[in-house]
Amino acid sequence: MDSHELADPSENATHSPTADGNSPAENPSHSSATDTNSTSDQSKPSEDPSHSSSADAKVPEKRKREPEPAPENSSEPAPPQQHPLWKTTLCSYFRRTGGSCSHGESCRYAHGEEELRQRPDNTWDPTSERAKKMAKIDEKEKETEVEEGSVMMTEALGEGDESSSGLSKCFVNLPMKWSADQLRKFLSEQGILFKSAKKKKGMTVGFVTFEDAAQVKIAVKELDGKSVGNNRTLKVTDVIPRPFEKNNKVGVPAHSTQKAENPSPNSDNSNTINSTDNDEADGDGSLLPNGSILKGRSARDVVTPLAHLSYSEQLEHKKNSLAQILKKLTRNARKACPNGVSLPEWIMKSREIGGLPCKLEGIIESPLVNGYRNKCEFSVGYSLQGKSTVGFLLGNFREGVTAVEEPVDCPNVSRIACKYAAVFQEFLQHSLLPLWNRLNNTGFWRQLTVREGRRPCQIAEVDNPESNISEVLLMVQVCTVGFDDGQVKSELEGLAQAFSVGSTVESPPLPLTALVIQDHTGISNAAPPDAPLRYVFINKGGDRGLEIANDVVEPRIHDHLSNLRFSISPSAFFQVNTLAAEKLYSLAGDWAGLGQDTLLFDVCCGTGTIGLTLAHRVGMVVGIEMNASAVSDAQRNAEINGIKNCRFVCGKAEDVIGSLMKEYLSLPQKQDVTNETLQNKEAEVNSAEENVNSADCGLGTEDNSSGDHENGCTASKSDDDAQMEKLCALESKSTPVQQFKNVVAIVDPPRVGLHPTVIKVLRTQSRLRRLVYISCNPESLVANAIELCTPSVDKADKENNRNNRGWRNMSSAGLARHRAKSMPNSEPFTPIKAMAVDLFPHTPHCELVMLLER
Ligand SMILES: C[S@@+](CC[C@H](N)C(=O)[O-])C[C@H]1O[C@@H](n2cnc3c(N)ncnc32)[C@H](O)[C@@H]1O
């Protein structure tokens, strides 16, 4: 699962001219509201003491007025653009005197909030209302992060009888890597007597049961507050009964009696924790183990923590946060710059823009602010009230939160996705198979993914976004291990029928294209791309209306980006906000400086969205992607859109990029592109457009299996295979290795960023002059850019660097600094400009694009 999967929305889009026909840079409406105002003045913000701090307010008479920046003609008011800090600080005289300041309009300080400008580093005068509001947002964001020690277990945990007698304790803040054995060993080493101890690797909480009250007392006295592992302070707290067990002495949720009849062989469902009643229990009995009352937390708070702000406030907040992260690039590259090597100009000039490595040009808004997600992953689990629920985890499993709440009021989730979650939830109330238990890794039902596909739509049509959703693919994740095949089949049939009925009772009926069952045994719900799939065909005409098949064509979903049609297999990555993704890719294309003599490397290309949408603007695209289904999708997408100048290579970028670059860049440079090539290319683009138009005919029809291969709607399995064979043959035989004058790379890696080998190849390939980095995680962009942009060191320094140990404890930026020192001698890149694109309204996440050149 990527960072912006809505699932725990922790997951994470393409090119074309934007739908309004303007590139973002050309269209001020894209970024004007939040643009950074930077100027060429050399002053540093830190050199400009504010004259409006609260301390100043107390002793105004002691404060010396700073000289105004000298206007060219002292009789004229200073033009605002003369000083980068012009009007970025509130005028305390003006404030204190209720509106009179002897400097009048020429005062460099802002007379009131309306006049106040943002500082070059994207911050606001800390005494201003805007800054205070931003600080509050930060605080609220922190609050919604799970506090260390909060436990909201709704899973069966303990030992029945003992837990209800108060003999169980919750140990909070344990090292994540500890297993139950390590916890037992630790207890024994401390001389603590106990009956049993439970702990899962990856969690910071454990549960210990004692023989009697005396043992409990000693354990609390000896261990509460003790230091464990890496400077963690252990907390020993009461185990709180799961709320639905407070009135149920047996400790089994009412609905789970049914499950007890059909437990998984490993199932532990009857073991639940009941413990001492706690006086501090609130209405629903949800408590922190340390005794404090768990503040009410909703799925909305967790999934969309910025939803309480207006959209413009959200954008401003994101831009500020990004600016702070970007400054790390300057600081770390400065630190990593070898002795005796002069600092690159961009570092020298960073002072003019508040320490930023390059100008942060603004943030492009999402065309759709609500219900924009085309993919939502809903967890299955118990709510705080013990109800089988399909929705979002209320926090982090690692810290002991397993409660799931319905996706109520989460503004990024579409109405259709919510409806399907509700249908599934209703079904689970009567299912004979158990929910997945995250603590003992048993159970059957795990997760529901709802993927929506849209017909081509103009940004102007976003007013009624739902009307553009023409396909829905549902993927239900289960774990079949230990369950009877017959029973599994019967439950899945029941589920298919429930979805089928659920879709048709709505008016208008909800689209329902395919149901896929993903069988996954792993501990977390993040299944590998090759996890086995079964396809359930939904025949809307029939009674039961389904057929489970393993050996037929894989169901897929179709979406449209920049007038191209994309066929997406169930587990392939596709940006979750299609309309905003168009803007993102369009920006990347504009910044990449493309032309017919350009060879574009699309690194981490997924289903080929970036390369394919830019293909008509370049000579050739080489896409690299490790997910085999996504590569097949990319090849298929090239085919259905009639695009012939793309090659997609399946492999880890770190394994293949070196040889691919060598293959394309080691030949002598090619002459100018001939007229003939250009004409061919034009014909290809026209044929792509025709294909899109004809492909549209398949949209809106429910049954894809009857699609017409010729017009690219769908294909039967044999047609697909033939297509693939043709493509592979084409690639291996006839893709001539041409030479191109201009070589650029657009990289769009997963959250962790690029592999060090990829960075090294990009950095040392001297013909690569321009690199556009797209990132959903600005921290990893910064870390990678440190390596790409820091001047290299000579050999002797590298030797010293090898002796450096302790990398395990380094931050990503620290590690990047360290690696930068081992970078082979090569010309560093320069950060030219950056721009954010908001693909994830209501959440703190955002895509960041940076142009690097040399
Ligand atoms: C953020 S997605 C971007 C996909 C594509 N550019 C798009 O926007 O649709 C990152 C992609 O990188 C792929 N990926 C992850 N690690 C990779 C690696 N080491 N080498 C190549 N591809 C990788 C993932 O499978 C995923 O498709």
Automatic annotation (TrEMBL):
- Residue ranges of the C3H1-type zinc fingers? 85-114
Question: Per UniProt, what is one GO molecular function of this protein?
Answer: RNA binding
Biased composition annotated in UniProt, kind: Basic and acidic residues: 58-68, 115-143, 706-718
Quote the biased-composition stretches of kind Polar residues, using this chain's numbering: 11-42, 803-812
C3H1-type domain ranges (all copies) = 85-114
**UniProt binding sites for S-adenosyl-L-methionine:** Q575, E625, D748
Active site, UniProt feature: C776
Asked if the Swiss-Prot or TrEMBL record annotates the protein with the keyword Zinc-finger, the reply is yes
**BP term (GO), one:** RNA processing
Disordered: annotated span: 1-84, 115-148, 245-292, 684-718, 797-827
Question: Which SUPFAM superfamilies did the record assign?
Answer: CCCH zinc finger, RNA-binding domain, RBD, S-adenosyl-L-methionine-dependent methyltransferases
Task: Please name one Pfam family that this protein belongs to.
Answer: tRNA_U5-meth_tr
Q: RRM domain location, by residue? A: 173-241
Report the InterPro entries cross-referenced here.
Answer: Methyltranfer_dom, MeTrfase_TrmA_AS, Nucleotide-bd_a/b_plait_sf, RBD_domain_sf, RRM_dom, SAM-dependent_MTases_sf, TRM2_met, U5_MeTrfase_fam
Q: Mind listing the UniProt keywords for this protein, alphabetically?
A: Metal-binding, Methyltransferase, RNA-binding, S-adenosyl-L-methionine, Transferase, Zinc, Zinc-finger
Q: What are the Low complexity biased-composition ranges?
A: 262-276, 685-695
Kindly give the PANTHER family that the UniProt entry links to this protein.
Answer: TRNA (URACIL-5-)-METHYLTRANSFERASE, TRNA (URACIL-5-)-METHYLTRANSFERASE HOMOLOG A
- Which family is annotated? Belongs to the class I-like SAM-binding methyltransferase superfamily. RNA M5U methyltransferase family.
Protein's name in the database: tRNA (Uracil(54)-C(5))-methyltransferase
Q: Which organism is this protein's natural source? A: Handroanthus impetiginosus
